[in-house]
Amino acid sequence: MSKEQKSNKEDKKKPALSPKEKKAVKKSKKDAKS
Predict the structure, then answer these.
(1) CA geometry: angle at 27 spanning 21 and 29, to 5°?
(2) CA dist., res. 2 & res. 9, Å (int)
(3) Residue 22 phi, psi (nearest 5)
(4) First-last CA distance in the chain
(5) What is the pLDDT of residues 1-34, one digit of tens each?
């Protein structure tokens, strides 16, 4: 859980993610949740 929170913080720190990467992150988060 702490690992996910860390990556979450990193995402907010540098919002230089491309739309494709954002989609991948959203998908990976969904996969990790279920």
Answers:
(1) 105
(2) 10
(3) -60, -45
(4) 13
(5) 466 666 666 666 665 667 888 888 888 888 877 6
